[in-house]
Amino acid sequence: MPPPTVLIVDDEEMVRRPIRVCLEEAGYQVVEAGDGAEAQLRFTEGADLVLLDYRLPDTDGLTLLRRLKTQAPDLAVIMLTAYSTIERAVAAMKEGAFHFVHKPCDLDELKTLVDLAMETARLRRDVKELRERQSAPFAFDQIVGASAAIREVKELLRKIAASPASTIVLFGESGTGKDLAAKAIHFNSARASRPFMNITCSALPEALLESELFGHERGAFTDAKQRKLGLLELADGGTVFLDEFTEMPPALQAKLLRFLEERAFKRVGGLEDLRVDVRVIAATNRDLEEAVREGVLRRDLYYRLKVLPVRMPPLRERLDDIPLLAEHFVSSFNREFRKRVRGVSDEGLALLRTHPWEGNVRELRNAIERAMLFAESEQLERADFPSLGAALPRAGFQLPPEGIDLEALERSLVVQALEREAGNRTRAAALLGMSRDQMRYRVEKFGLKD
Q1: pLDDT digit string (tens) for 168-213?
Q2: Which CATH class is domain 319-386?
Q3: Which numeric CATH code is attached to 5-133?
Q4: Residue 209, Cβ neighbours under 10 Å: how many?
């Protein structure tokens, strides 16, 4: 790997020379420029850090600094000047300079400063790359589909992500991808570097849900032995996703409404108003107007959330997306299960298109997961989807009137195979016609112990 490159921009060769020698001895590659025009040319050839004089024959250092930072926002720049003032230093730092050094330079101090600037720039690049990798699974193209319905939704989500909107409501049937939409909004917004906190409101009793959201003070209730920060505080600058928010009790809905209106709240048992900058994304599988009529959702909260409503369409309204979704899930499970299934056959796709999909995309994903686990051919065939009405693989088998719980059946088969083979996963996997990795996956999924 080539050494880092430092560009020295100064019109005095007697200034550049000792700096060049010092940095070359430290292992850096050094290039020089005597004015702004030459600096621009040298910079296009590549530089990791720039030592930039404040005064140049054809321009001033601040103007050139702005130009370079426009081309490379993460570039490390150290300003040099023989006329150092606090005002100049402040101006340079505001324009993005890493530091400001008075000439003549102490070479040891300058070398240490260059090392620090290089390390800081490297860490910033690493953090940026890490954030990009973390957000990649939530890019808008991960919302799979090309139908008019899903294209319209993705375009709306893009606009919301780029906007300063602080309150959004997602609604639609279970399994339509509301959680994925919420993450896409967050990770494609200016808040992406800040926390994404989510909570399923139906999963907790009222008192615990209030404490999770707003936090509590020590002694607020019997078990409150110390102060606890709630999700709203922890997510400051980021996003809070309230899934199934219509399951909140009315009293807690009122407290949420107050926060949305005033951007302030009190911890449970607290007296002080706390203010945070949080985007709230609420989601529900209920019809919002019906929830208001039934008294499940407060009318005032409904109107506060209705500013930016996004309806996630059910799968039956986007049947043309089924081949793309199937291909996406097959590819995903190929990686997870280490298989090489080439996709779904035409007959298999025809079956998938005729199923009602009451569980929407989540149900489709589960159906393909089951098919992938037991598939033996290069393609998923109609017979690989018995729960969707395909012929069952074993001749003479009669479906009982009450139907079959396929997941329970799979678990039972795995348990029986392990018992028959005395816990030997390799032999148990062979007994069921699957690989050891597939067996390991099922053992972990069903929480089985050897």
Answers
A1: 999 999 999 999 999 999 999 999 989 999 999 998 998 899 999 9
A2: mainly alpha
A3: 3.40.50.2300
A4: 20
